[in-house]
Amino acid sequence: MERLRRFPEQGVTDRAALDALLDSQWVGVLSCVFDGRPLAVPMLYARDGDRLLLHGSTGAGALRGVAAGAPAVLTVFALDALVVAPTTFESSVNYRSATVRGPLEPLDDERRGAALDLFSEVLIPGRTGEVRPPHRKELVATLALSLPIRSDGWLLKVADDWPATPEEADAEDDVWSGLVPVRTVLGAPVPAPWATDLPVPDSVQQLTQSGGAGSPH
């Protein structure tokens, strides 16, 4: 993994911790320099073992750039708690953040369909068995990319601590301090106007019933 220069004590080298963060989120920010301009694009992603899968329209300039070999990095962030200290200066947040950088490989026609199915199954397990497969035209219009998780290409930072004590913060002892946890939960499914008479499919029911607090997948 890469070396963390600021607050090195927050650097985590455990690959399992990296996987846990990547698997708990759905969205990252893909950053690159394309045509001399910095670009940062929020994107869905899915982890498949030692690679991350991303996809988008073949008309997206940023994706075309990274597919052509432009250096890129994907950043994933999870906010776990507000850290309420005895002073505002000492207050902060507990969080996990990761960057994965490296060359993104465009997937050819033979691998694109399987990768997109796997992407869907990571987000909503079982959904691909409930709907038709993509048309050829849809596959051609989609760019699928694979970002390898290389041992020297990722960095994980974790802030997970109590707030400063009143003594450390040079504050009075009677000021409350503590943590306010932040959680992500999946709500009850809301049918589209044309699907109000249809039952909620098993894939969606199982997804929402699993809870998902802090762990979308």
Automatic annotation (TrEMBL):
**Region (Disordered) location:** 197-217
The organism's superkingdom is given as Bacteria
Organism in which the protein naturally occurs: Nocardioides conyzicola
Origin organism lineage: Bacteria, Bacillati, Actinomycetota, Actinomycetes, Propionibacteriales
Q: State what protein this is by name.
A: Pyridoxamine 5'-phosphate oxidase family protein
